[in-house]
Structure formats: C-alpha cells, structure tokens
From TrEMBL:
KW Membrane (keyword) present: yes
Gene that this sequence comes from: azlC
Protein name: Protein AzlC
InterPro entries given in the database record: Brnchd-chn_aa_trnsp_permease (IPR011606)
Similarity remark: Belongs to the AzlC family.
Species: Octadecabacter arcticus 238
Example of a GO biological process term: L-valine transmembrane transport
Keywords noted in UniProt: Cell membrane, Membrane, Transmembrane, Transmembrane helix, Transport
Keyword flag Membrane: yes
Compartments where found: Cell membrane
Pfam families noted in UniProt: AzlC
Membrane topology designation: Multi-pass membrane protein
One GO term describing the cellular component: plasma membrane
Transmembrane feature ranges: 12-34, 46-65, 71-96, 137-160, 166-182, 213-231
Length: 237
C-alpha cells in the first residue's frame, strides 16, 4: 500500500478537527455577544478575535476590562491564561521544529487548543510520520476551526440579540476544554497537575481580578513538574 502523502494527511487532519465546530461555533458566538454587551464596537470585537486569536484569554481580558481592572492586571492575567501556548509550542517543536521559518510562524499564529490536542496525539501515535505529513495534518486540523472562530464572532455580534435566553451559549466553554483536556490526561503528573489547578482555583477564587487563576496555574505547573521528576527518578532507580 502506498504511503500516505501530505495532501492525504491534510484531509485526515481536516476530518479530525471538524467535530470541534460543535463547540467552536457557540464559543465564538458567545464572545461576540459578550463583547458587544460590554461596549466593544463591531470592529474592535472582530479585531480582538482576529489578532489575539485566543478564546479563553479573550474572555478573561474582557471580563477584567469590564470590571475596570488595572491595565497591567489585564495583560498579566491574559498572558497567564495563554501561558499554555508556550508549553504547546515547546511540545510541537519536537515534531515541527525543522519546518521553514514562515511555516513555523504560521503554525504559531493559528495554533489553538484543538489543533494542538489532535496533532500531538497523532504525532505520538504515529512517530514515523514525515515532516511534510505532520505539517499537512496540523494545517488540516486548524482549517475548520480557525476561520469559523472569526465567523462565529461575527455571528454573535450581528445576531446576538436574536439568540433566545434558553439557548445558553456558555455551555460551549467548559465542554470545549473538557473535550481537549480529557484525552491528554495520560500520566500521573498530568492528573495531579489538573486536580491541583482545580482545587487551588476554588481556594483562591475570592482574590480580586481573578488573581486566583494566576496562583492556581503557577502552582499547578510546579506540582506537575515535581511529580514528573519524581516519576523519572523512580523509573531510573
């Protein structure tokens, strides 16, 4: 049987990313609705989704700006929420680091939780894929997700008032992240880090300007790294 080409892996990635539209569409519409209600113009809201291009960080920054939080708090919190992208990049660099600079720049721009989750799982399951096949799969996975995030934001802006109250769009946010995170809980370190972040976020939920998220994220990463080191030392012993 002939080896699959970059083009065929693009379509494999496309089919893999397609189901995420079920959560990306309401997620993006919700942002359009919320941003408009917060006083953003249509241009500002569309620019937010097109330039920042980070759903969770956008919602976090929007909430803090609506609460008149200090500028530095808004920036620091949004960066902390998006800190996972640095870890995603480091993880993907192992598989895509030899790509041309312009491709790596484009991958960095369009990389989102969904594309990272399905791509890294594919790379680990099929470590013998060529670089072109990995790149093809990645861009296939983001094709149905990224453009529709912007389209959904526009729909939220223009049709937000027509959405009935019983149709709670905010269901998409937790479902989206559960769908992404659950398959990635493969080791004890992952699970301990996830549980730690949940517990700490609840414990520090009373801190102003959502600073509890910063504390929970930082401590959970440290805890996860320590567990990973402990597991490595135990395996070598």
């Amino acid at each position: 049987m002939p080896r699959a080409t970059q083009k065929s892996y693009y379509w494999i990635g496309f089919r893999t990313g397609l189901p995420f539209l079920l959560v990306v569409m309401p997620f993006g519409m919700l942002f359009g609705v919320v941003a408009t209600e917060a006083g953003f113009t249509s241009v500002q809201t569309m620019a937010f989704s097109s330039v920042v291009f980070a759903g969770a960080a956008q919602f976090t920054a929007l909430q803090l700006m609506a609460d008149d939080a200090p500028f530095l708090i808004v920036v620091a919190t949004a960066l902390a929420v998006n800190l996972r992208m640095a870890m995603y990049s480091a993880s993907l660099a192992v598989w895509l680091g030899r790509a041309p600079l312009w491709k790596r720049a484009l991958i960095a721009y369009v990389n989102v939780d969904q594309s990272y989750a399905v791509s890294i799982n594919r790379y680990e399951d099929e470590p013998d894929l060529s670089l072109t096949q990995r790149i093809g799969f990645f861009f296939g996975a983001v094709t149905p997700v990224c453009p529709m995030w912007i389209v959904a934001t526009g729909l939220g802006i223009w049709f937000g008032d027509m959405v009935p109250d019983w149709m709670a769009l905010d269901f998409a946010v937790p479902i989206c992240f559960l769908a992404i995170i659950a398959p990635m809980m493969r080791t004890l370190a992952h699970m301990v880090s996830a549980v730690s972040s949940i517990v700490l976020a609840l414990v520090f939920s009373g801190l102003p300007y959502n600073l509890g998220l910063l504390v929970a994220a930082a401590v959970a990463m440290i805890v996860g790294a320590q567990v990973e080191m402990w597991m490595s030392r135990r395996a070598e012993a």
